[in-house]
Amino acid sequence: MIQIHTDGSCLGNPGAGGWAAVIVDENNQRTELCGGAAHTTNNRMELTAALRALEKVSATSRVELYTDSSYLKNAFTNGWLSKWKRNGWRTSTNNPVLNRDLWLELDALISTRNVNFRWVKGHAGNPLNERCDFLARTEAAKFQRGEKISVPPKTFTPPRNFARPVQLSLFD
Fold first, then answer.
1. 172 included as an active-site residue
2. Engineered SS bond to 38: which of 94, 102, 148, 150, CB 3.0-4.6 Å?
3. Is 139 marked active-site?
4. Phi, psi angles (nearest 5°) of residue 2
């Protein structure tokens, strides 16, 4: 089983943010991932940490994902995500769901993996949660100081007529 520990940080909310994940594989080998953005929110960083870590593990892997984010955990364990989708991406108060782009990506990854979510109390001495917190805060500070700049994510959204045949010449 693979363990993933994640955390997000934001210096100001919104503000400069960082995310981090520590992946511990079946052989007890550790991989650390981190990044951030110049202007973001803590919740976006929490979701991004989980997303980037899950992208690194095989779809056939069993994963225990440890997070101090109730927002992330509860979306999957308390059925929030299912309700949001059923309600057309609206919350119980009929507001648009925030961070929909990240939820869509996470949902796609989770649907192809066996993931169990585990909540851990933040800043309570869990060594890998503390390591993620340190890495995430360090990344956020780099963005705050201007040592790093945000790069827009590379996404591809096909146009509505993407599946239609395209005329290649005037003589076809």
1. no
2. 150
3. no
4. -95, 135
